[in-house]
Amino acid sequence: MALISLSRRLRRTPFSDGVEAAGVKGYTVYNRMLLPTVFRSIEEDYRHLKEAVQVWDVACERQIEIRGPDATRLVQMLTPRDLRAMLPGQCYYVPIVDETGGMLNDPVAVKLAEDRWWISIADSDLLFWVKGLAYGFRLDVLIQEPDVSPLAVQGPLAEDLVAAVFGDAVRNVRFFRFGLFAFRGRQLVVARSGYSKQGGFEIYVEGSDIGMSLWHALMEAGRSMDVYAGCPNLIERIEGGLLSYGNDMTDENTPHECGLGRFCNTQTAIGCVGRDALLRVAREGPVRQIRAIEIYGDRVPGCDRLWPVMAGDTQVGHVSSAAWSPDFETNVAIGMVRMTHWDEGTDVDVITPDGVRAACVRDMFWA
Amino acid sequence: MALISLSRRLRRTPFSDGVEAAGVKGYTVYNRMLLPTVFRSIEEDYRHLKEAVQVWDVACERQIEIRGPDATRLVQMLTPRDLRAMLPGQCYYVPIVDETGGMLNDPVAVKLAEDRWWISIADSDLLFWVKGLAYGFRLDVLIQEPDVSPLAVQGPLAEDLVAAVFGDAVRNVRFFRFGLFAFRGRQLVVARSGYSKQGGFEIYVEGSDIGMSLWHALMEAGRSMDVYAGCPNLIERIEGGLLSYGNDMTDENTPHECGLGRFCNTQTAIGCVGRDALLRVAREGPVRQIRAIEIYGDRVPGCDRLWPVMAGDTQVGHVSSAAWSPDFETNVAIGMVRMTHWDEGTDVDVITPDGVRAACVRDMFWA
Fold first, then answer.
1. At a CB cut-off of 8 Å and minimum separation 6, what does B361 contact?
2. pLDDT tens digits for B149-206?
3. In a shared domain, residues B83 and B140
4. Does B172 touch chain A if contact means CB atoms closer than 8 Å?
């Protein structure tokens, strides 16, 4: 196990002081920013996430703010998802593709107003793509990374905790909607969303100066709920089939391969980059696709590279994320499998660094 | 000290097996790829780099390949440095700026042919910017990240080691030039360049499959030269004033603030993005600039965030990189200082996490 070498380049967040005080044990780097990966242990964190409530420093979900008369036109250029019916107050999960239909990011678009959007990004410098397009097309927009850092509250008690700090009106916020709620005299975007299946909210903390103040307020208000610092949990996200850009998909993949075809309205999303390529993909269908894969036997090692998925001597796919699930008492995994072997119940082998394992393609994820 | 959590998203390199076998102790993440930071200790690695020869896994210096009839036009759009006199076989250090003159990256451009370039990037997804511009301007180019991974050989014995593997002709390669040299039947770009002041080469390994073969060949040939695995060394690079994008400069800085004004030929680099903004900067001059800063007293802690530089109660800059130098027996640092206090010999204070330190602005770096 190697240490992470800290430097300014791996940016701290407005919540890093709280994360350190809570005893963070591991980090990854996401958008050149520190993202905690474990506090007590991944399995203890997992149990606690499913039973109580956690506060997550997900400041690394950086925002791209797009303002101006051409803002909505530009956002529609970015994604094959049809945004015409989207209203201010809504959040949409939007695949972003290049001109060949390759995934560049899979962010959440937050529509603040007709002429003002935030794109809450996964791990790639989507800002550069957006700025490049806007410059090339001479669009009338202002594009920047604002001082906005999401703080997530996740777990079965998340609603109670967020209500304790922001008031009971947050209970009325529906899934993938947001409202504006006051904290320390500032109006913050609070959305019902987050990178777990346990339910919860993401608070878009505008202004680093109030970051630790909100962190402390949540910790204080949640004391009776067993609140603790947490982070996206590897086991829980695989059980729930939450994909991770860079892990489970890259720019080599189309949205259709990632099972995101339902977010591609290529017939109606007029003007989106990659439309021609995706129309072709939509007609022919992908030849490989994301699948849940159960790997039999005892605990697999950490998955830090692609593991080949084999049918006899032929590679028919790969596993990109895997972990032992205490609740399902098996190894849960996410992989990409060719259509010849992607049907539910297909037996395959997975080559892990510890040896070959029997495995099975599933129709659905676990949770 | 926290551990790094490995996942596919933090990409391994063609040399990772060698790096691990050599006992890597720390990593950073650079272009979403693993970059070793320490093998024995930062000070032992430093001493060895200055006295012998090291092989560095710098695969994280990813390449952007630009091919096609508009390739040279596009590369000139990217940088304010005038490229008209550049010949195939040359490498240029090229600041890349956005339309406001803010630094997006500071790569090395490698001109392979009139219609074929590699851009060897620092830590940001410059690929997205390049692709966005090319799409917006409908340029006739093919842009991709090829399977090319630089392996650096650095240190006073670097030339002997590279000559032992590639033949004595590499001795004729001049600084920031490259030649094509055979290894295992493949022609590789070998440039006299690298991120240290000790001299050496960077081998652009085309094809991951021969990565470990070259690694082993260098280790074998260098046995009598005390060759060892190494990596960019924090102390040595600060002594030498080698800037690090993300640490010492960001998109908030112009090239002129970074002391890179000599690479900005804004009068003649026709068509470059950011020209208008940089013409203005060139006329007025920057109001703050990169400086070498000596911090007095004993060893400073690790610099993982900006440290304010103070003149009395007024902040006049910040330190972005700092380390104890065994050779110069002082703390060497890189900072950005306002013009009111940037003259050589100006006394300032630096606020470190361990307390306030007396410091002095220098005219030159140490090595």
1. B291, B292, B293, B337, B341, B342, B343, B344, B345, B346, B348
2. 999 999 999 999 999 999 999 999 999 999 999 999 999 999 999 999 999 999 999 9
3. yes
4. no
